[in-house]
Each structure stands twice: as C-alpha cells, then as structure tokens.
Amino acid sequence: MDGAHMNRLIESVHQDLLPRFQIESVDPHDPVKVRHVPKPWQLLGAGNYAAVVYHPDYPEFVIKIYAPGRPGFSEEVEVYRRLGSHPAFSECLYANDGFLILKRLHGVTLYDCMQRGLRIPKQVIHDIDQALDYARKRGLHPHDVHGRNVMMYKGRGLVVDISDFLHEEACSKWDDLKKGYYWLYRPFLSPLGIRIPYFVLDVVRRSYRFLIRLVSRLKQLKSRRF
C-alpha cells in the first residue's frame, strides 16, 4: 500500500468515521455496544474493548476502535510491534487516537463455525498452537485466546485478537478449548455436523466464565487460610 493510499484512509477515518461512530462499553466482561456506524463503513465485530469496521473502498484493511474508557490501546500497539510479520497474525500499519489500522484477516471464528456446523480440522488447532509459541518466543504471553478470537480460513488457523498478550498471569482458555475440541467436538459433534444455536453457545460461554471465577475465588480463599 503506497503512502498516498494510506493517507487517504487515515483522513477518512478522522473525518468521516470517528465523528459519527458511536460505541460504548456496558459490561467489561461482554462485547462493547456499537450504537451507530456511519455509511458506507461496515461493522465486522466487537470485543470486550473495541469494535472492528472496514470501508468498502479499502477492503484489505480494518479499523479497530477502542470504546471510551476501555484500556489496552497502547498495549496492543506494543504487541503488534513485537509480533512483526507472521501468517497467523494481522499487522498494525497505523495507530493513533484510540484506533488502529490493521491488515484484514479473512475467515470464520471457531465460535461461528460451531453455529454453522462447519468442520474444524486439526490443522487449524496446530496452526494456532504454533502461532502462540511464536508469540511466546517474542516475549509475549498469549492470553484470552478463545473461540471468538481465533479463526479458520481455508483450513488454516488464525489468531485475530492479541490485545491481552502483555498480561503475564496464567490463562487456560486456549488449553480448555483444545480439551473440548479433542474430547467432545472431534469424536461426537464433528461427524454429525451439528449446528449449535448461538443461545446455547452463549450459555456455555457464560457457564465457563462463571466456573473460572469460582475456581479462582476458591483458590484465593484456600491461600488465605494457609
């Protein structure tokens, strides 16, 4: 992408997108709420900190916009700096004023694969494992890697959210997802091609989050006793 093309995109973000884009964080444990996206910008998705949009004139890039008051912008910029170029990760091409311009990754999240009944081959899991190992070698700590933050594209795995990779505390989400993949998905769900409704997936997600908090709280209580 030449400099003039990038400059036009940056100008469009500042002049056309940001002044009319409405986003808020209602609950830090749930995706942010996007209230309005000015045309012709299109919403691609929303996470706990930010939302991602793109412009049809610049389909090879996405704009990640942090919700007011949500942390993580400068940390995400640093993570992308350390990652450099890797096929399983996006790249940050510009960052300023609470938004990033990223190389667009195409694919379907593993969460959406479950809803659509799409088969998830083992290669996807292997690719993501290798990508996370690469990140660790770059001094990062893969964190908050779950079904909404990883994708499948043409049978290969991608990691689409690296915003928490500076967090040093242990995170078992990816390991737990892999257990579900090998113990439940491959032997039972994959052969049947079952489509799991979003409300069921959401119940599983919330139940898992509750159990993680409960286990953490029990560990804290146990440590205080001893």
Automatic annotation (TrEMBL):
Keyword Oxidoreductase recorded: no
Protein's UniProt keywords contain Transferase: yes
Keywords: Kinase, Serine/threonine-protein kinase, Transferase
One function term, GO molecular function aspect: protein serine/threonine kinase activity
PANTHER family documented for this protein: SERINE/THREONINE-PROTEIN KINASE YRZF-RELATED (PTHR37171), SERINE_THREONINE-PROTEIN KINASE YRZF-RELATED (PTHR37171:SF1)
Protein's recorded name: Serine/threonine protein kinase
